[in-house]
Every structure is written in C-alpha cells, then in structure tokens.
Amino acid sequence: MTIYFYKVWQPYGCFSNFSPHGIHIQGTYWPTVEHYYQAQKFVGSIDAVIIPLIHAAATPEEAAALGRCSTRQLRRDWDLVKTEIMREAVLKKFITHIDIREVLLKTGDEILVENSPTDSFWGCGANRAGLNHLGKTLMSVREEIRNLLSLTVTYE
Ligand SMILES: Nc1c(N[C@@H]2O[C@H](COP(=O)(O)O)[C@@H](O)[C@H]2O)[nH]c(=O)[nH]c1=O
C-alpha cells in the first residue's frame, strides 16, 4: 500500500524535510534538512550572503521562505545538483536519528510519496502524477541503509 506523507504533524511526518531532525554536514549543524537544502541553493552565487540567514531561521517554514525568494540568484548548477544534495541530506538524517530510521525501515518495500498539492517535482502534485523525487530519495536511502546494516551484521 502506498504511503503518503506531507506535513510533520500528519502520519509519517518524520519523512518531511521540515521534521525537527538536525544534521551535521561538513562541520556545520543544520536544524532541519529543509534549512540545509534551501541554503545550498545559494552556494557560490552572488546572493550567498543569505546562507547564514537561512541557517539561523527559527523554523523550516522561514528557511523555505528565504530560499524561495524569487529576486535572489540561485547558483547556476542548481537544477543539476539539487537531487544529489537532497539525497546526501536525507541519508544523513536517517543515519543520525535511530528512531526515525526504524520508521523508514519498517515501511519495507512500500512506495513512499510526498503528497504535496503544490510541488510536482519533490512531491506528487495536486493530480498525484508528479515526479515525487522526495519519495524516490527516501526509498533509495531506505535501500542504502538496509545494505549498510546488512554489511555491519556480516562483519560483526
Ligand atoms: N513538506 C513541505 C514542503 N515540501 C518541501 O519543500 C521543499 C521544496 O522547496 P523548493 O525547492 O523551494 O520548492 C522540499 O524539501 C519539499 O520536500 N513544502 C512546504 O511548503 N511545506 C511543507 O510542509
């Protein structure tokens, strides 16, 4: 059965990038995956001054609003790198936090879908036919963690 998730307070809310699970990446702590993802949009761009503001945002909603500001210039390679950046952050999140890693692993081989009515790239969009890249990322991370855990057991 397909598992739909979206808002943090709904079922499987820990799969949302807005969930309060911090990550350390390259020596910096980010309060949520969303903070990290939004900040990466500006690495190397003339608007990189916004990165510390996104980092310090009080909520992921605020971080997203800063990152979505249409008058700022995104890094030129953003469309090429964004899915890999997201994957790195989501993998880090589920490696760091054991409780939600268990929730992810317990979904087995179910299809995971970000049920965003407004986003047909990361989510499935209003018609549920969108690309669902966040769901695909989570399924790929689930597989990678499963493989990592089976290696650990084998060599223990
Ligand atoms: N969960 C969730 C959202 N979805 C998230 O928004 C991000 C995409 O942002 P952008 O690339 O700037 O359009 C990505 O992390 C996606 O999972 N958006 C929201 O406004 N509220 C929410 O609760």
Main features:
mainly alpha, binds the ligand Nc1c(N[C@@H]2O[C@H](COP(=O)(O)O)[C@@H](O)[C@H]2O)[nH]c(=O)[nH]c1=O, two-stranded antiparallel sheet, NADAR, single chain, 156 residues
Describe the structure.
By secondary structure, the chain is mostly helical. It contains 6 helices and 4 strands; from the N terminus they run E-E-E-H-H-H-H-H-E-H. It has helices at 33-40, 51-55, 60-67, 78-96, 98-105, 133-155; strands spanning 3-5, 23-25, 28-30, 112-114. The strands form 2 sheets. The chain has a two-stranded parallel ribbon. Strand 2 and strand 3 form a beta hairpin. Helix 1 (33-40) packs antiparallel against helix 4. The longest helix has 23 residues, at 133-155. Bound molecules: the ligand Nc1c(N[C@@H]2O[C@H](COP(=O)(O)O)[C@@H](O)[C@H]2O)[nH]c(=O)[nH]c1=O. Pfam families: NADAR. It comes from Nostoc favosum CHAB5714. Residues 4-146 form the NADAR domain. It catalyses: 5-amino-6-(5-phospho-D-ribosylamino)uracil + H2O = 5,6-diaminouracil + D-ribose 5-phosphate; 2,5-diamino-6-hydroxy-4-(5-phosphoribosylamino)-pyrimidine + H2O = 2,5,6-triamino-4-hydroxypyrimidine + D-ribose 5-phosphate. This is NADAR domain-containing protein.
